[in-house]
What does this fold into?
Amino acid sequence: MIKRLLAGVLVAGLATAAHAGDVMKMAVTTSFHNSGLAEVLLPEIKADLDLEVQLLVVGTGQALKLGRAGDVDAILVHSKAAEEAFVAEGFGTHRREIMYNDFVFIGPKDDPADLGAATTASDALQKIAGAKAVFVSRGDDSGTHKKELSLWRAAGIAEDGFGDWYKSVGAGMGAALNTASGIHGYILSDRASWLNFGNKGDLALLFAGDPVLFNQYAYLPVNPEKHGHVKAGLAEKLEGWLVSDRAKALINGYMIDGETLFVFNAE
Amino acid sequence: MTELFPLKVRGAATARRGKMLVGPVDLDLCGQKACVVIGPNGSGKTSLLRLLHGAARLHRGTITWACPTDEARHHQSFVFQRPVMLRRSVLDNIAYPLLVHGVKKPAALDAARDWAGRVGLTEMLRRPATVLSGGEQQKLALARALVTRPKVLFLDEPCAALDGRAMREIEAILTDAKTAGTKLIMTTHDMGQARRLADEVVFLLGGLVHETGPATTFFDHPETPEARAFLNGDIVE
Amino acid sequence: MTDLWSGLAQAFWLVVTLDAELVEISARSLQVSLTALVIASLIAMPLAALLAVRRFRWRRGVIAILNALMGLPPVVVGLVVYVMLSRSGPLGVLGLLFTPAAMIIAQIIIVVPLIASIAHQSLRDLWQEYHDLLISMNVSQWQKMKTLLWDARRALLTASLAGFGRAIGEVGAIMIVGGNIDHATRVLTTAIALETGKGDFALALALGFVLIGLAIAVNLAIHWLSRTEREGRW
It folds into this structure.
């Protein structure tokens, strides 16, 4: 009785479901996944190409690491300098820009640092630092985190100038937003994650629109010369689809609360 | 047929943490007779039994069976003062020694049922052994020891915690076993029981064999003053 | 507090409507954790029995290590398994990373010390009880282990259930080695982490309630199954 039960569990457990069609793995950033766009695109890809794209949702840093190790077939991230280094080191065949969205400053509705009156992103950060208002940083080496650090530099505020008001939480976008909501802090978020975020509480969008806040997503197939097992053919097929007019219509047409999130700009 | 006897013990001793528990002992035993080991507490009765059985380490001397020692072990059983009950049914307890020595299950269960009947446990075959009374547990331990038809049965004060009736029942089983050709080597504190069962007596004192001989001689005419005092119920050091 | 209530309500509706996605990830949770549990038990139980009956030089050391490993941080296990199974790691050729098999491996490593330690404690006590009898019966090492494992099966069931509890509620390791891929490696705990990240506390809580319910159901089912074949009251 017990033996048969155990054997049954073992067989059921070890039998991996047979997949019909092709399967590939792609590492994407949390912000992309949180936007909800993946849930629109993946079924269409499945229908058009009979290709199941399995998403690994991680930070940009980890996504690039997965690509370097050959554990995924392609990556879709948004950190231009790191992406170019990835290609230069030979881990990716090339970098293909697909679309962009933008970053926005989120903060408490009562806006103690007066971000509402900011003119540029640098101005906004200077106001936060000037008021020593609580600021939540992703602190996880993600694309968003890297963007945030470059914005601070551009605003002329060195990292060692951060005081107690600067909270580095080392978490994904959603978790960081949760933290900001909990401690009434300011935070830099991509627009999509913000709109999809369910626990807004006292938070509100306070500043957006500066062109430096644009966030370019690029697609990088992993180089089969480095890792012979990667599914380069499937990665190429997916790239073809991502830059097609079909993808363009889906991406440009994707809205949350009546707002467009992404702008397709593949060439 | 494997013959175990005569058993020759020469200068055998066992110690624990440097303290001599029993020995050096010289002893000659032959089969077909019940040998009862008596002596005051701490005189080394249990240690002697364990030593003969091979369950205690032989530190000095030799214990020589008529056949190789490993083979002799297969023809021995041991019943403890406090019976060890396997957490199984009465039937499975009795069948256990047969099963671990390769007897097929149906045959083992048949033999177990037979022995349960001989010790009067037929009514409780399916009961968990741990819920039996003290007397029932010791009868179960006896059946489990005898089911392999051993040539030697060691018993360490098998009736120490039992009432008179249970004791009589167990003595009856032992007498049957003796008649069937099993050599009994047992310890007891009960001189009445010793008189009833013993053919030969080993009187231990301070870890040494103080006196040994046929039961009738020993009980009626003990040679040493210590043995006489012990039989009178006096304190012997 | 409102999240808690709406989480409860949502959990209720997800369950009564047999939400397809919920059924899928719950089934995968069960599949991964039960498989890991069975394999881990097959490793841990004999190990525990061996430690109980066999006296060898490193025995105490092994027991101390097992006890210490009970508190093994899942994240560390996940990272180690990840590095081993990564395409650029020593076992990369197997291509197991980001599959349920990788999650099973990680969970096995996490629960083996737990099951072995708990099992060893009860087997050690039983061995003290049985020692003299089994020695006097000339029982082989292998049969001693078999006897202990069989006679202590109730206690061992408890050890296994403790292992199951740890496996099914584990998130750190399987998140890393499984990758939380939708329709491939997403299970209840990683889904909860995901929904929490999105700030959808109600859905996260709903999944949490389902997880708790599932754990209770499995415990009850196993107890019931083992009772149907009972012979005594041990």
Observations:
- Chain C is about 75% helix and 0% strand.
- Chain C touches chain A through 36 residues (CB under 8 Å).
